[in-house]
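Sample intake sheet
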Amino acid sequence: MKIINRRFDLDIINLKQNLLTLLKEVKKEHKDALIAMETQDFDMSKRIVETDKEIRTVAESLTITAIWSIAQQNPFATDLRTIIGYMNIIRDLERISNYAKNLSKFNVKYKPEIKLTSQLSGLMKKVFKMMDLIGESINENDINKAYQAAEYDIDIDNRFRESMKNIVNMLKINKNNDQLSQYTSTMQQLKYIERLGDHLVNICETIVYIIKGKFYDLSSTKISE
């Protein structure tokens, strides 16, 4: 039994490391999507759309590995909770990767002006900080960093509303019908990024579940450290 338990412990460690690698890849995908917009590198955007398929394949492979680990072993309740939690995080990361693809398609189609991409980049920088805290929380099993990451969603929501107002004001000044679709599509991308923040909050809630064994709604109230 001890040998089996040690093997299962190794499975959990390996899954955790692969999950952290997936998180880094998803973050890199979004950073690259942002760079492609800021530099108007449309070929790079097209490559990111293709790379998204690879991330989906990795996420599916990790999920299958997690399911097999459960099926082949007889895990304790805490270990089972960890595996299920990691599976939930992998699912959220797979969904989050879609937003990088959306940004890349948007860049290729509309070739947005710098004043519009700056609104998107300002919001994404807050998302990157949230991702960093989540990575640290998972790696160190630190529940406080999960709380801190969840609080960043408040900043994301505030910046989202500010950016939406900025674009509405731009529309009032510039009433060129040819650019209307570019502006409205930028607003849609902002909404996608705001939803991305919601998925990251879901991950924070899952981390708390793994550590505490209970689900807490971290989106409704500000959590103190």
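Comment: Residues 221-225 have pLDDT under 50 and may be disordered. Helices lie at 2-39, 42-72, 77-110, 114-140, 143-173, 177-212.
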